[in-house]
Each structure stands twice: as structure tokens, then as C-alpha cells.
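Progress note, sequence design subtask.
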């Protein structure tokens, strides 16, 4: 008898197969070699509109503006800390997570990463670091969790799944269509990973995940 997990994976694969092939090549590539940019993007993406039709708006537009105004912070966490939370907020906004300003959470996370042994200052440092140490430093900041920690690393080229609202929504819609119970974010992440292994559509895990994210993201904004 097929296990419930296998049935759930099959349901996600079927839902993914309905997406246009082009969706699996839509991932923009993140911010390779830019640890500061990736950290800012990851934190400001929490419960926020990522894209906007207005220049300089939305998380992406503001990150692009930050890179233009402060190129020194793109791949240097020490420079990001020196910039400070107030000046970061001037460009990125004063959004909050867990009642804390996101700009302040970013500074605390950057300082925690710099305090690792060896310190994480650049993208090369982060990719060479123990992922468990990175997760502990990042999630040790009140307001930051494992979902955006994984996204932070994905933006630097580590394959993964950002199990946010859109991914969980896609997975649970697929499960509902197969009369299967809904799952948590942790379980949704595992199902996407296993669905990718079963039917990658020629995409990397991050590209595959992004296609599923776009499917529900587009519906949410329609």
C-alpha cells in the first residue's frame, strides 16, 4: 500500500505538472556573492509585498535602490553594521517583524554572524560556514525564523525551499485535491523536496520551489 507521504508527494507532483514549463525557469537567481543584500532581502521579505510596479517600491525595488546607494554593504556584513539600522530603514522602510523593526533585526543578525568562529562577513564565508551555526546565529534573533534563514541562504545559491505562506498554500491545495489532510510548513518543505526528486522538470530545487511559489503568489495578487 502506498504510504500517506508518497500519496502526498504524488499530489504535489500532479499540481506542479499543471504549471507552464516556463515557470520552472523563472527564478531570477537571487543575489550570488552578496551576503549583505541577501540578508536584507530575506528579512524584509517577511510578510511584505516583494514586487511592485512602482520603481523603488516593494522589497525588490528597495533592495535595488539600497545596492545603488550603498554598494559597500552588498557583500560585507561589517559595512552593513556600520551603515546602521536607521540609515538602512531610510531606504528599506520601517517594517516590523514580531513587533521589532526589521532593520534592527538585520543588524543583530549581521553581528551574530560576524561573531561566529570563523566570522561570516562575506558570501564566501557564509557558504563555507557550518549551516547549523548559520541557522543558530540567524534564528537567535527575536523575530527571525528558520523559513527566512533558509531563504537567506537560497539567495546566495544554496538550493532549498522557502516554506512561506505561498508554498504552504500550494502544497495544501494539492493535498486537498487528493482528499489528503493539510500539513505544516515543515512538512510542506519536505514534500516539495521529495516532489522535486520525483519530478524535477529539469529544474534545480530552488527553481522548482520558485515555480510553485509563483503559482500561488500570482493567484494571491490577481
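Output:
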Amino acid at each position: 500500500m502506498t504510504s500517506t507521504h508518497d500519496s502526498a508527494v504524488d499530489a504535489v507532483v500532479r499540481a506542479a505538472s499543471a504549471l507552464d514549463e516556463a515557470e520552472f525557469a523563472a527564478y531570477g537567481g537571487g543575489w550570488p556573492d552578496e551576503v549583505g543584500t541577501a540578508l536584507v532581502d530575506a528579512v524584509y521579505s517577511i510578510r511584505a509585498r516583494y514586487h511592485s510596479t512602482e520603481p523603488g517600491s516593494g522589497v525588490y525595488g528597495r533592495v535595488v535602490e539600497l545596492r545603488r546607494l550603498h554598494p559597500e554593504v552588498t557583500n560585507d556584513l561589517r559595512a552593513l553594521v556600520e551603515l546602521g539600522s536607521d540609515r538602512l530603514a531610510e531606504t528599506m522602510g520601517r517594517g516590523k517583524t514580531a513587533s521589532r523593526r526589521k532593520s534592527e533585526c538585520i543588524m543583530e543578525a549581521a553581528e551574530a554572524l560576524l561573531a561566529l568562529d570563523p566570522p561570516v562577513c562575506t558570501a564566501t564565508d557564509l557558504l563555507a560556514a557550518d549551516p547549523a551555526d548559520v541557522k543558530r546565529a540567524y534564528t537567535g534573533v527575536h523575530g527571525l525564523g528558520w523559513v527566512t534563514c533558509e531563504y537567506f541562504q537560497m539567495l546566495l545559491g544554496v538550493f532549498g525551499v522557502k516554506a512561506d505562506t505561498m508554498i504552504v498554500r500550494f502544497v495544501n491545495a494539492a493535498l486537498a485535491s487528493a482528499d489528503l489532510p493539510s500539513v505544516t510548513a515543515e512538512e510542506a518543505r519536505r514534500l516539495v523536496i521529495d516532489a522535486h526528486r520525483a519530478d524535477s522538470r529539469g529544474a534545480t530545487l530552488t527553481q522548482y520551489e520558485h515555480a510553485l511559489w509563483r503559482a500561488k503568489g500570482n493567484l494571491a495578487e490577481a
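Strands lie at 96-97, 100-101. Work on this subtask will continue into the next period as scheduled.
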